[in-house]
Amino acid sequence: MMMTSTIRIQRREEISDMCRKLFLSQQLVALCQQATPRQEEFLHDVLSMEVESRERSKRSRLLNRARFPMPKSMEGYDYSHVRLPPSITRGELEGCEFIGRKTNLVCYGPVGTGKTHMAIALGMKACEMGLAARFYTVTELVLKLAEARKNGVLERLVSDIRRLDLLILDEWGYVPVDKEGSQLLFRIISDSYESKSLILTTNLEFSKWGGIFTDQQMAAAMIDRLIHHGHLLVFEGPSYRMEHALMRKTASERSKGGDEHGR
């Protein structure tokens, strides 16, 4: 009897919690007083399925809105060429704990070393956790901001970005940005400071940012905001894409040589 009573109390607490999530009246919990155990269990199961369905739909919407160019996962990710700073552990990184703390990640290293893969994978994990993320290349974002300003809808776009939990900016510094673009980008960085997390991928060392953004002082201000609450992840080694392309080429040449030898 004690076990049954404990189970019913726990079940009613879960029903109450699910009612809050579904914006339903707590009157359903009170009705459990007149319900049989089987009726109460049925109500619990129905609410549980509805909560799960809505959370699944929410995750799907978040992933669609994030605009990731391709799906990526941290499962089996090769950390052998990545140097994590002492300020963040692998578990904290993969658990997206930095987003809750509103801290940033700057992924720095040569092209093809896994920076974008990590950024997308962490962004997708954030969406799975119910957080709002968005992926842009820097060139794409600057063009969107400039177009929005021209069309008189800049504030709408800025407000949309402001509501995000995570903003991913890929290929930072790959292409020079003009003065107007630099000012617009600086506004996004300033708005994000201590209000959301950013992930930047770049192959450009900090000392060269001024040449890309046309203004040394603006570049210094960006760096200050990004690093003050941020972690620098250094990616080293050869290009993963190039390395695997060479592996495929070598395998193909070996296969061809074997065929010729057979003939």
Describe the structure.
- By secondary structure, the protein is α/β, with parallel strands linked by helices.
- Helices cover 59% and strands 12% of the residues.
- Strands 1-6-2-5-4-3 form a 6-stranded mixed sheet.
- The longest helix is centred in the N-terminal third of the chain and has 30 residues, at 37-66.
- It is elongated.
Share in helix:
55-70%
Distance between the termini: 82 Å
Shape: elongated
Ranges where pLDDT stays below 50 over 5 or more residues in a row are none
Strand order of the largest sheet: 1-6-2-5-4-3
For the sheet with most strands, the description reads:
6 strands, mixed
Rg value: 25 Å
Helix-strand category: alpha/beta
Strand proportion? 5-15%
DSSP strand tally: 6
How many alpha or pi helices? 12
Task: Write down the overall mean pLDDT.
Answer: 86
Brief account:
The protein is built from twelve helices and six strands. 59% of the residues lie in helices and 12% in strands.
Which structural traits does this protein have?
263 residues; alpha/beta; 12 helices
Furnish the topology, listing elements before pairings.
Elements: H1 2-21, H2 27-31, H3 37-66, E1 82-83, H4 90-94, H5 97-100, E2 104-108, H6 115-128, E3 133-137, H7 138-150, H8 154-162, E4 166-172, H9 179-192, E5 197-202, H10 209-212, H11 216-228, E6 230-235, H12 240-262
Parallel strand pairs: 2-5, 2-6, 3-4, 4-5
Antiparallel strand pairs: 1-6
